[in-house]
Amino acid sequence: MNDIPHTAPNLDESDLAILEQVEADFDVSLETLAKELDISKSAVHYRLNKLKDNGVIQSVTADVDPLAFGLEMVAITDISVTHESGYSEDIGGELNKLKGVEQVYYTMGDIDFVVISRVQSRDQLNDLIDRIVAIDGVNETSSKFVMQEFENDRSVVANLTKKAREGVLDPTND
Question: What is the pLDDT of residues 121-130, one digit of tens each?
């Protein structure tokens, strides 16, 4: 695991405004961004490339609806493992490779990992749990099944507190 905390490079209000717009609609045009932010298209393009180069924007993707493909079963699986040297990286990596797994979290507390998975059927879920249990070091699993999902806009920039926002702004850009 990377023990170095991730911090945004020094940004200014225009960078944050661009990020808010892109988070809300990844397909927003340069023309729209330029008009809304009152800066040139070339400035928007330069800033977007800089944000990508600095790792602030990790990728530009489409938000595909899993229900359109029949992936209606969501399970949250708690996993307890044997604690040996390097276990979090090894087991976390193996869990992340499994087809049907959407997210893997290494946690502290009573359980070691939380896995969010999405499949089409109970048979697929049973197969996935069997593959999880087959991973060397996995001792026990406990799954919960999602009955209803609620929309979440998952905005990073829009959810920044005022203090957090000030913390990523570059004071030399005032």
Answer: 999 999 999 9
**CATH T-level assignment (fold) for domain 66-145:** Alpha-Beta Plaits (3.30.70)
CA-closest candidate to residue 113, choices 146, 82, 154: 82
Looking at the chain, the domain(s) classified CATH 1.10.10.10 span 9-63
pLDDT by residue (tens digit) across 134-166? 999 999 999 999 999 887 766 777 777 888 877
Count the neighbouring beta carbons within 10 Å of the beta carbon of residue 25: 10
Measured CA to CA, the distance from residue 57 to residue 9 in angstroms comes to: 11
Alpha helices in the chain (DSSP H): 13-24, 30-37, 41-53, 87-97, 122-133, 162-168
Its CATH class, for the domain covering 9-63, is mainly alpha
Cα gap 21→157, rounded to integer Å: 9
* All CATH 3.30.70.920 domain ranges in the chain, comma separated: 66-145
